[in-house]
Amino acid sequence: MATGESRAPGGAAPEGYDKYAFEPFAVTVDLAVLTVRAGALQVLLVERGREPYAGRWALPGGFVLPRESAEAAARRELAEETGLSDISGLHLEQLRTYSEPDRDPRMRIVSVAFAALLPDAPEPHGGGDAAQAQWLRFNALGPLAFDHDRILADAHERVGAKLEYSCLATSFCPPEFTLGELQHVYETVWGTALDRPNFRRKVLATPGFVEQVPGAARLTGGRGKPAALYRAGGAKVLHPPLLRPTS
Amino acid sequence: MATGESRAPGGAAPEGYDKYAFEPFAVTVDLAVLTVRAGALQVLLVERGREPYAGRWALPGGFVLPRESAEAAARRELAEETGLSDISGLHLEQLRTYSEPDRDPRMRIVSVAFAALLPDAPEPHGGGDAAQAQWLRFNALGPLAFDHDRILADAHERVGAKLEYSCLATSFCPPEFTLGELQHVYETVWGTALDRPNFRRKVLATPGFVEQVPGAARLTGGRGKPAALYRAGGAKVLHPPLLRPTS
DNA sequence: CTGACCATGGTCAGACTGACCATAAAGAGG
DNA sequence: CCTCTTTATGGTCAGTCTGACCATGGTCAG
């Protein structure tokens, strides 16, 4: 920025910034908080209590405070909505900014959208709005408030794409997980079935993706052979990527 | 947004939005306009004439107008900076939003950054600031104004990554181009050399990436065998991707 | 004890990649 | 005119990776 002073609206002020020679906007953050739970991709939504879009589901979010960045605002809102104390390790990623002039019918609002990935999916129980916050299955969502359908679709697309070439999937898993659970994340987000032996081979052949927890094993719900437990490794990217089935 | 009215700063106004119960921000766009010219990746920069960062190079950009989206603002600024009349077909992509409270020492500014890819690289000659706008080689840039180093680095990383799995490279090329020129785009952006026969094979084996212009051929500067001309095909993504050398 | 279920290991053909070699067509320079 | 350099284009070949399988082993529900 800072190069367009001479074209700033609201007056031809050479001093530009200092005279507020521009239209001020409200800046908010919107959060697409995703988790894999009960065999489905779920998203944290709040029910709107008043117009516009009263009764509709909406993404949690709120205003950016005067002295905080959008990232900080997103973390703050996330902590408030979910009631989680430890949000230091979770994956929070800026999606993009939505700035259509009429996206909020009341006034001009520019919103920075984030995607957050939660492993465990506790029931939301924070202060304030969190009382109305709820996990909903990604499919079979009615139309959301504002342009939140679009934001959610973008979040889904981004996360699905990042699973291909990054180790992001572990962010959906608890600290220790089985390869079956990890595969389930991929299958749920992508909506496709994967071949289990091939998935294992690929994941284990990628150095730093996962590392086995020595000795430990978990019985996945009691059914079948106990699976070995793994932790997320140090790697962040997958080379070569784990591509979606092309069909 | 629109869900955090009760937590809006500046007063516990239940009416929230209508009372401006928030801090207004200035919203700008910053443009990382990239091209491949003279065998190098180049970026359009403007020289700052006043403090802060007087004399430093900065990304072009400006304020978002009251009734326009950030995308529209980016297109408007781009047209003004480059003086191009036809900016309908070029690739303009939102990068991310930079909102650190002190990124501009004068006041709080939230900036939405875009990457634009130009094929031909005409000398900038628009109205207004464009007089000072100039193409500079991507490497050997001194430190830029504000956090524009960071923005430019993010743009480079994004474009480099998108070359792998999309047909974006054709956006750097004129409407008709040779495979050698297309390969040159990859090599310049990635900073690595590619094997020519293998590159050809890969590109031609990807349906919809490029389509040959029948009959036409161009002598690439007079040297060597004339090359066949190609146009961008209808495809947008590369499946499987064209990965960077791992070294 | 048996079958269902899941984890794990292995095989095998086809696709893809990287590293090459070979040839063709043009200009540059003697 | 001939040769060298340069670029485009075509092909080979071995190694790797992938997708589609088959097989085995451990655990629980009957």
Which features would summarize this protein structure in a list?
DNA-binding; alpha+beta; seven-stranded mixed beta sheet; Nucleoside Triphosphate Pyrophosphohydrolase; Arc Repressor Mutant, subunit A; 26% strand; homodimer; 4 helices; 247 residues; three-stranded antiparallel beta sheet
Total of helices of chain A: 4
Please identify which CATH superfamily of the largest domain in chain A we are dealing with. Answer: Nucleoside Triphosphate Pyrophosphohydrolase
The Cα radius of gyration of chain A reads 21 Å
Q: Are there runs of chain A of 5+ residues with pLDDT below 50, and where?
A: 1-20
Bin the helical content of chain A.
10-25%
Might you state the CATH topology name of the largest domain in chain A?
Nucleoside Triphosphate Pyrophosphohydrolase
Tell me the quaternary state: homodimer
Under CATH at level 1, the class of the largest domain in chain A stands as: Alpha Beta
| Outline type of chain A | elongated
Mean pLDDT of chain A: 87
Q: What is the number of E strands of chain A?
A: 10
Please give the domain count of chain A.
2
Topology order of chain A in helix (H) and strand (E) letters: EEEEHEEEHEHHEE
Largest interface: A-B, 64 and 64 residues
Largest sheet: number of strands, sense, barrel closure of chain A? 7 strands, mixed
Strand content bin of chain A: 25-35%
